[in-house]
Fold each of these.
Amino acid sequence: MAKKRRQPAPAGQEKVKAGLEVRPAAFNGAATGGNVFKSRILWLLALILIVCGFAALKKVDPWGQNGWAIAAPALLLCGYLLIIPAIVLSFRRSS
């Protein structure tokens, strides 16, 4: 088969690839450390919430009738759930 030559498009009718955007490196979050900073904040916040949750567990009365019985598990749950986005941001590959 013969190879076909492509002719350049007339001026003003250049095709733009959908979904591909070329940005300078200065605006790329991975190049400036944006994702690293966000992931470290999420890890730190998750750790703080988990430690506060365990500290609040010591204040719960044996029958679980005070406010700490609600706050402690909520703090622990929030801390554990923040670990998931922290892991995703930590191991996301930059393209």
Note: The mean pLDDT is 80.
Amino acid sequence: MIWGCGILLCACTALWLLLRVNCGDRYAGLRTIPMEGLRLRQLTEPFLLLLERGRLGSYIPSLRLRIQRSLQQLYGVRYSAERTLLFLGEMLGYSWLLLAAGSALTLISREIAGILLGAVLALLLPAALARDLHKKVRLREQQILMELPELLNSIVLLVGAGENVQRAIVRCIGSRNGDYTHPLYKELFMMTVEWEGGYSFQQAFENFSKRCAVQEVSLFTTAVLLNYRRGGSDFVLALRDLSRVLWEKRKAISRTRGEQASAKLVFPMVVIFLIVIVLVGTPAIMMLKM
């Protein structure tokens, strides 16, 4: 088994070197694509060649599609295929690195536990990366849903005061004072950039809805596009009805977050309880033995 680990380590190293020579600067252009969480860009470039020529993504179409969809929601449709390739390469890179480290640990310690640990982590860590990506998408959706009722109330007030829809949205964006880190206002700012770039109001609003990829935003977009030409009381009433629905959604998310926070506190409380029992019970047991 020890010799098998040595062969595995040599095979992993040889495979990486062979792919590194073959890929050359083929993926140099991907290094400038902005994407958070990639820590092995230089190391995983050979695996991008393996994914493309070996068509490994075709063996896991559902996983690849889910990852691409999540990346599109986080970073937009542009470069989504390239970002999917980078993310899959990152997953392969971690698996390769952990297998090589496990083999090396077994060779050094002469214990089989090293390669077993490396193999288990090589399977679990890529799955954890995919799960973390989907968690970021859910968090983004929740942030948009939590802020959308506030935005809608502001638009209703401004339109009721005599502003048109476009100027009301611009005023809401301007109230952020240039801080567009929130995903909803980031997409709204991109929508205003599209207006200035020549897009019509309807095109820019539809693109905004697609980028957000949230059902409630689609309802908001539909309500605005159906009623903004009418203006006046009809438009305000339509947005107020939608606002009540969105506030209920926000309350449901708040309750869910509160329940999740309570559940996360259970484990620390159990640990503290056990520590208190040990601290209190140990002296009593020692006194009984004496």
Note: The chain is about 80% helix and 0% strand.
Amino acid sequence: MSRVLRASVGTLLAFLVLNIGLPSAYAVPVFARQTGLPCQSCHTVAPELTPFGRDFKLRGFVLSALPKIESKTSTPLSLNRMPAFALEVDLADSFTQTSQPGTQNGNVQFPSKLKLFAAGALGDNVGMFSYLEYTQPDDHFSIDLTDIRVVGSGEIAGKDAIYGLTINNAPTLEDPWNTLNVWSFPHVHSEVAPTPATAALLGGTLADSGLVAGVGGYILWDNHWYADVTLYRSAPTGAAQPIVKPGATEGLVPYARFAWQSTLGPDYLELGASAIQAKFIQGISGAGAGGLDDRYRDISADAQFEHPVGDNLLTLHAAYIREQQTLDSSSAASLSNPADSLNTLRADGTFLLRPFTAFSLAYFSTTGSRDPQLYTAAPITGSAGKPDSDGWILQVDFLPLQNIQLIVQYTLYDKFNGTRNNYDSAGRSAADNDTLFLLAMFDF
């Protein structure tokens, strides 16, 4: 580890020297422009949301302080005079404990990502969140996460209610909490370091855009009870219609989310559960037997707790996912067992030392069925016959400005793709993939 830290200290110092002396100021990304409010109104440490941020999202991103063009004709218009755009530039560097064969250790990404956000109010009760993203490993632009909402509010059974429709392209994208999939910790990670080979549907398999798209409805009743049901269908990018791309989902992919929230004195608590079910044509890899599919069913439980400590804040998140896999297509092609299971546990805590610094610690664990046909040996990315991986993540965030975020993250693996030592049958151990990740995020 000392070798890794010595190699990275120059990069870390460069990040800090460029920014540590800057005065405090309001951030100017997309929603700050629209609302005229600082980023910390909606976020603790982005993208984690405050109570105000959760309410802003549930109400469709429509709160605005911008001058508007309005018309009250039979076809009404309520449009911000200035569109709400923002740009994010990310610079990154990654160091693994042991170099990947044939590669340089210390892989600078300049930039690692470039995001153009187009988001905000489209009308009095219609809003959206969307961005175009450049990713350095792929070296291309693509439309990434998108959430369009039509919202309303009123009374139901004598209690206040917020309700709406969502059109989005990733299950859990619509979620206002930070416990599952799209918005769960860690919010950033190295894109060039080895990572565990498998994840549950609610743990990331369908999190990326360009796989599915869906429409659903949600309601928050009495400020306590939340329900969301969204139906997705396959929507892979770069595929002709009708979709015949192997590995695409088949038919409807139903997703349901239920949660209860409450304030307990100065504290806040959320308890939730969710479920999703999907069929994949010829399996997720697309290499299974033709005419068959693989079926996945996830059930999860999650919790979020917030506790103020003076002017500072402690946030805790936990999620458990149980996935059942019926692998007819993969099994018929001798690529897997007929059925497998996967269990994922994640827990993290962040202490926000206002106004500049946050310290985070997370534990993650994945266990599952032994399946040597599915989890095969290969240098670096291979497995020892099982999906088991677990470890810890330590992270420090520094915010010299609300729209500049500097991150130092260290990931330590106890197990990786099945075991601790020689998991890939090529001599690589789990600890060889321990990763120091440095990231600077600039929002304009």
Note: The domain at 2-443 is CATH 2.40.160.10 (Porin).
Amino acid sequence: MYVPRTPYKTDLHALIRENYRQVFFDKENLGIHLPFHLEREFKKYLTCGIPAYGIARFHCLCCQKDKIVAFSCKGRTLCPSCTGRRTADTAKHLLEEVIPAVPIRQWVLSMPYTYRFLLATRAEFLRKSKALFHRTINGHYQKKAKAFNLLNPKVGAITVVQRFGGALNLNVHFHTKEENIINEDLSLAQLQAQSVQNRDEKFQLPIPLGKFCDPPFREFKGWRCCYNDGFSLHANVKILGNQREGLERLCRYILRGPIAKDRISYNDSGIVRLKLKTHIQMEHSLTIYHRSIY
């Protein structure tokens, strides 16, 4: 049975509802003029799933009952509901219409900090980097195919460019199974540079208010993992042709949105807690974490 969601009662909604206008006001006072579409995303999210901003009435001819459904914002960034629905729809399309029943391997390439700002702000740099990544992988598979005497082998690939890291920082990296943004706004570029380096307005590292467990960094192990000069390549994940459920989970993973409402908590004292995928949990004040949304 359909149960309407209540986004107004979530911590993420309260966090944005109570603070986003002040954040934009503070940026304006500092002379930082943000693009209009950023504020539009916040406003759209605050209306998503709330009947007061628009509803649709569905009538069943069989049982003669009505169902009221609130309009959604159809956002691509802040709204976990809309990004989740887009994730499910796109994964279903890839599974049923695009990817045949053949073995699939996931290649994940993360870039050094030196290049992340250029990848986030220069579409030409991002496009050429992705093309080079594709050509390298395609060449690898073509050489293996020719060793089996296959004539004119072709390689198919689907790449998702993710622009966020596990801590909601700006981290452009490629998920490939074998964006095109031009930004000349210096104000937005400054925020992007801060997010890439996980810094505050003065480019200082955030001060943790509470921190539990700090395990040492552990590299992925395996024949298909490599770390060199800041580049990280991980290709251990393989899905066989008959493992369609595993392929669907993989598609959902690489298409996921940046924010999961279950990982964000916001208390009355203004402390925001973001639960990371690892065992580390860090608490920061809102003035530190709000910029990660950009």
Note: Residues 179-184, 209-217, 279-294 have pLDDT under 50 and may be disordered.
